[in-house]
Amino acid sequence: MPGTELFGDEERKEVMDVLETGVLFRYNHDAQRKGHWKAKDFEAEVAKFTGAKHALAVSSGSTAVSTMLAACGVGYGDHVIVPPFTFIATIESVLMAGAIPVFAEIDETLCLSAEGIRKAITPQTKAVLLVHMCGAAADLDGILAVCKDPGSGPGSIMLIEDTAQALGATYKGKHLGLYGKMGSFSFDFFKINTCGEGGVVITNDDQLYTTAEHFSDHGHSHEGDNRGMEPHYILGTNYRIGEINAAIGLAQARKLPYILSQQRKHKAIIQQRLSKIPGLTFRKQCDDAGDSATFFHLFFPSETVARAANKAMIEAGVGGAYWYDNMYHYIKQWNQLKDLKMPFRTVAHELGLPQDLKTLKFPKSDAVLSRLISFNIRVTWTESELNAYLDKVEGAVRKAMEGVGV
Length: 406
Ligand SMILES: Cc1ncc(COP(=O)(O)O)c(C=O)c1O
Hints:
Oligomer: single chain
CATH architecture of the largest domain: 3-Layer(aba) Sandwich
Distance between the termini: 33 Å
Mean pLDDT: 96
Bound molecules: pyridoxal-5'-phosphate
CATH topology of the largest domain: Aspartate Aminotransferase, domain 2
Strand content: 5-15%
Helix content: 25-40%
CATH superfamily of the largest domain: Type I PLP-dependent aspartate aminotransferase-like (Major domain)
Structural class: alpha/beta
CATH class of the largest domain: Alpha Beta
């Protein structure tokens, strides 16, 4: 949780600015706010860092995905290709939009593969909701090629990037979230930057930005300075961020360059050390230098070894994430989705899903995730803390490998 490692005077100062004026609302109240516009400043900071023309702060990474889908016109019955390995929010947003999730396989990039996407295309496919999982890029060249030329499917397919986990990551020098129509980040408590709860949508498209901005505030057009008299061109909802959350996000976003440099430095040390272990491999990187280095990922030769390593690491006090069994991140455990258990009926209930999620198999994704264990990279590790940590990880990995005769 890198962001939370660095809470300090900077966050306190930004929050106090807001509390001193009492203007917790992001719009209007110009006279009372004494020049403090934290949501706007937060947006400007994210736009500057990522190089996006527009950034829109909203209430969460989940509402950021919903805002993107709405702005891109994804709705009733549209098929949206999604990964089976993501946080469930990605899928929920598709269902909430009245669209239909269609699952495709991932590969050792931990993201949707171009081949997986191609196989999942239907005549109704409108978009690919690409998740750059665990802080690094998917195979964007391959995926963009499929979206542009889907073969036997419909005309070109929209790429929308759920970049919730990959703030700061780049592909060929360009920030993730700028390859598709829109990209979204989460600033929840577990991310590289956190503001408690918050999200940001980025785009270079003026029209999509305007629609997203209006949609996230009940259709308010924000024209003039009299909220009650603003024209409303569309309906929307309240996905606004509050000024307190934005204030924290602003302070955190300013720390991003430092966080990234520390994480990347630590990742290099980790990789150098663990690459000496025979049989162990790392995540396939499409652009290693652009990895935000929030995690390091170890691939074991088989599920049996991975399970043995997971056990040994927990015993050594350095347990990581064995996603294959994780309730939140892999479709294998998402029984609530397989039964479409929601408190209300959606378009998906009416039209049905094109895939039978109870019987659908993901042999490629299973082969990836059953062998994978991931670990958080800390920003604040000292060299000796990192070395002590690595001693334990290495010991556990070697014990597991030897135990099963690798
Ligand atoms: C890929 C992905 N999408 C969306 C979200 C939702 O973000 P939030 O928790 O800010 O709503 C998350 C959160 O973990 C995520 O990992």
